[in-house]
Specification:
The protein has 435 residues and is α/β, with parallel strands linked by helices. The protein folds into three domains: 197 residues, Rossmann fold (3-Layer(aba) Sandwich), CATH 3.40.50; 82 residues, Orthogonal Bundle (N-(1-d-carboxylethyl)-l-norvaline Dehydrogenase, domain 2); 135 residues, Rossmann fold, CATH 3.40.50.720. Helices cover 45% and strands 14% of the residues. It has a six-stranded parallel sheet, with helices on both faces. The longest helix has 32 residues. The radius of gyration is 23 Å and the shape is globular.
């Protein structure tokens, strides 16, 4: 079976590499000639643990190819996955589907014989049917199907998520497409992965409903953390007590500075807009969107309030810039709002992230000095702020902060240190939901 993957962004590249690991012949297509050239040389455009090894292995085996030639790739394919970006459209909050429809237009020109065209991109309800009509108008001479196969990849653990998923969701229009996609995912039968087949609209909505629910869960525990601080409770114990209830579960009950990344911010907005279009209402998600933005700004105020003499001209050390560990993704990272607010108040910012330095430079430019390691970032700081919980930060001892810093204020927005140890070293330490 020949698989074509349109787009070599996060979803397309990981999915293409993993399908080739299943044993299929996969060709990944992108218009960016420089990116394709780098991928052929095994240079990854994103940071994802293990991805370079997987790509090299399957390129060497001849199962994974990279090209800019959409014509030949689509013509030879049995299954064509659309894995292009669907960012939030400026001005109205809707998902921008221009890349998806552009891809569909081009695919329509080159398909030959029965082909299943699958949206891997996260798209609003009804997109699959629109793609079908678009291609049908152009190629009424050919038999084809459109399917929806939303991704559930977590950045930092995407390969494992693809190879050993909780479930696979596939929306189809008929039995023929179902049979083809059953073969595509047949390697997962060995580990008895649940594969849910449904209609297009349901599959499209599942992805948005799942991500919005997780965003609600994150915001809920953040509000509980704020309440803990006011009543003298410990949010970690509260979260543990909640998580032991199997109806709730422990995941996504970790307090922090708010969610970011490539999915939750845009998917919550797109879900709200979908509901508005059909006269529905998802007020819980609307509140989460508003609260999450306020949360990031309130974290900046939390930092400022720890300095009795004000933040102006103070050296502020930032540990962690990416929206989560094990990725270089800066999209909607809490660091963007927090650093911008501190900078606007006159702070001198020095930052370090193990993977996101290059990405971060495009966002902050001359607002931030970038350190080469955590020690040089902390050295001489008046206040140190932990925004992303990289494992290497967990190993920094309380005494190391005391020895390296000029001041003694440490604001831990991820709760990775022991309050007793930090305060025992003479540090003015604060965290989230703990007193």
């Amino acid at each position: 079976m020949q698989i074509a993957m349109i787009g070599t962004g996060y979803v397309g590249l990981v999915s293409g590499a993993c399908f080739s690991e299943f044993g299929f012949n996969v060709t990944c297509v992108d218009k960016n000639e420089n990116k394709i050239s780098q991928l052929k040389s095994n240079k990854m455009p994103i940071y994802e643990p293990g991805l370079d090894v997987l790509v090299k292995k399957n390129q060497d085996a001849g199962r994974l190819l990279f090209t800019t030639d959409l014509n030949r790739t689509v013509a030879d394919a049995d299954v064509v996955f659309i894995a292009v970006g669907t960012p939030t459209r400026r001005g109205d909050g809707h998902a921008d589907l221009s890349y998806v429809f552009d891809a569909a237009e081009e695919i329509a020109e080159y398909i030959s014989g029965y082909t299943v065209i699958v949206t891997k991109s996260t798209v609003p309800v009804g997109t699959g049917k629109k793609i079908f009509k678009l291609i049908q108008q152009k190629r009424s001479d050919l038999k084809f199907d459109v399917a929806s196969n939303p991704e559930f990849l977590r950045e930092g653990s995407a390969i494992n998520d693809f190879m050993r998923p909780d479930r696979v969701v596939v929306g189809v229009m008929g039995e023929e497409a179902k049979n083809v996609l059953e073969k595509v995912y047949s390697p997962l039968n060995l580990i008895e992965t649940p594969i849910q087949f449904t209609d297009l609209e349901t599959a499209e909505l599942i992805k948005y409903a799942a991500n919005a629910f997780l965003a609600v869960k994150i915001s809920y525990i953040n509000q509980i953390a704020d309440l803990c601080e006011k009543v003298g409770a410990d949010v970690h114990d509260v979260a543990k007590g909640m998580g032991l209830d199997k109806r709730i579960g422990a995941k996504f009950l970790h307090p922090g500075p708010g969610f970011g990344g490539s999915c939750f911010p845009k998917d919550t907005k797109a879900l709200v807009k979908t509901a508005e279009q059909v006269g529905g209402k998802i007020s819980i998600v609307e509140e989460v969107i508003s609260y999450n933005q306020e949360r990031k700004l309130s974290m900046a105020q939390r930092i400022i309030s720890r300095l009795k003499t004000g933040i102006k001209n103070k050296k502020v050390s930032i540990l962690g810039l990416a929206f989560k560990p094990e990725t270089d993704d800066m999209r909607d990272s809490p660091a963007l709002e927090i650093i911008s607010e501190l900078y606007s108040k006159g702070a001198n910012i020095i930052a370090y992230d193990p993977a996101a330095k290059i990405e971060a430079k495009s966002f902050f430019q001359d607002k931030v000095i970038f350190a080469e390691d955590s020690e040089n970032c902390i050295r001489g700081a008046d206040v140190c702020v932990i925004i992303t919980e990289w494992n290497e930060f967990r190993a920094i001892s309380a005494s190391k902060f005391s020895d390296l810093m000029n001041g003694n204020v440490v604001v831990d927005l991820r709760n990775i240190y022991s309050p007793d140890e930090m305060r025992g070293a003479g540090l003015n330490y604060s965290s989230i939901g703990r007193v």
